[in-house]
Amino acid sequence: MSIDKDTAARVAHLARIRVDEERLPALAEEFNAILGFIEQLNEVDVDGVEPMTSVTPMRLKRREDVVTDGDRQAEVLKNAPDAREGFFAVPKVVE
């Protein structure tokens, strides 16, 4: 697939990017280079290769899922710039 100047202009418009007319041929070349790289990736045989989330095998640290006493209302509210009746007070945004 090849991207021409008109297609590059349309992609720029859809992406809401302003591109000067004289810059469109260079943008089209960049798009073509990206598509060429994608075509190279499509040539790689990945059958039987499991997807990975990291380049090194890692196991996430886990903690026990236990219920704790969350009775920290006063401690949390003392950080609030404005608190009333046990809740955060925020400015009214809807009339």
UniProtKB/TrEMBL annotation:
EC code: 6.3.5.-
GO biological process: glutaminyl-tRNAGln biosynthesis via transamidation; regulation of translational fidelity; translation
MF term (GO), any: ATP binding
Catalysed reaction, written as an equation: L-aspartyl-tRNA(Asn) + L-glutamine + ATP + H2O = L-asparaginyl-tRNA(Asn) + L-glutamate + ADP + phosphate + 2 H(+); L-glutamyl-tRNA(Gln) + L-glutamine + ATP + H2O = L-glutaminyl-tRNA(Gln) + L-glutamate + ADP + phosphate + H(+)
Keywords, in A-Z order: ATP-binding, Ligase, Nucleotide-binding, Protein biosynthesis, Transferase
Gene3D superfamilies xrefs: Glu-tRNAGln amidotransferase C subunit, N-terminal domain (1.10.20.60)
Keyword Metal-binding: no
Record has Transport as a keyword: no
Domain of life: Bacteria
Assembly information from the UniProt record: Heterotrimer of A, B and C subunits.
Function: Allows the formation of correctly charged Asn-tRNA(Asn) or Gln-tRNA(Gln) through the transamidation of misacylated Asp-tRNA(Asn) or Glu-tRNA(Gln) in organisms which lack either or both of asparaginyl-tRNA or glutaminyl-tRNA synthetases. The reaction takes place in the presence of glutamine and ATP through an activated phospho-Asp-tRNA(Asn) or phospho-Glu-tRNA(Gln).
Protein family: Belongs to the GatC family.
Protein name according to UniProt: Aspartyl/glutamyl-tRNA(Asn/Gln) amidotransferase subunit C
Organism annotation: Wenxinia marina DSM 24838
